[in-house]
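Troubleshooting entry. The earlier prediction with pyridoxal-5'-phosphate gave an output that would not parse, so I re-checked the input for stray whitespace and re-submitted. Clean input:
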Amino acid sequence: MTVLVFVDSATPAGRVADASVPQLLVTDQGVVRGDGVFESMLYTAGVVRKLDAHLARLRSSAASCELPLPDETAWRGAIDTAVAAYGEPDDADEAVVKLVLTRGPEGQPHGAAWVTVSPAPQVGRRQREEGIAVVLLDRGYDSSLADRAPWLLMGAKTLSYAVNMAALRHAHSVGADDVIFTSSDGRVLEGPTSTVLLATHRDGVKRLVTPRLETGILPGTTQGAIFNAAREAGWSLGYGPLEPHHLLEADAVWLVSSIRLLAPVTSIDGTAIGRDRDLHDELSAMVGDIR
Ligand code: PLP
């Protein structure tokens, strides 16, 4: 069951609608050009996790696209209405709260903005437990392009995810579960729907490293929250630059994201990699506490 609530600045609680019937104009540029922005958040045990961080990123993505964004009170009102209508998932159940903003039909000043709540896919939970086999795929541009080419909207969470989904299908076609993109100059970037995180435990020092944002990757809210928790727990933290050999040499590698949370990487291009159980358990506990 999917709950749908349109964001409407004139109606603070939003407008509830039927998700099982068409609701959008076929001329909306969000539909025909992927011109819009979105966020996906985990809703579990009565809490929409990291709501402030997701609203901040939605604001920043919309600004990159020069998209007018309904005010935050309207988003919060619609989210409250949507989760109340969905009901409270118990501890074992998880739901996805999705926020979407489109540009609307050409020539119109506003697009559509809405919130959906639906059950979280089972596959993500299985991958948290079992881990994922990953392939490295070339994204085709160098790691300094983001700065030179702001029109590419790198670092914004736009609706244009067709390439990301194609990369995942390619991974599945070669028997892998997921992808880590690399740049043409050989840097580790991100997954199609996740941030890369690696850990080492040497001479008593636990260290977490993630690729640098300057490479044009999306700033991950899960990575940000994990880094905050790890800093408090005394871990050392680092931001790239990362190359594939760093992944192979690490004691553990994960793809992290808001819905699947912490997915341990078991192999890269068919080569098994480190899976330090203690590091994984410690990080899992931190992720479990993220609100
Ligand atoms: N990178 C990309 C390209 C993503 O699509 C996502 C999430 O969907 C992430 C990273 C992880 O972001 P977050 O942890 O905020 O979910």
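This one parsed fine. Residues 135 and 269 are 5 Å apart (CA to CA).
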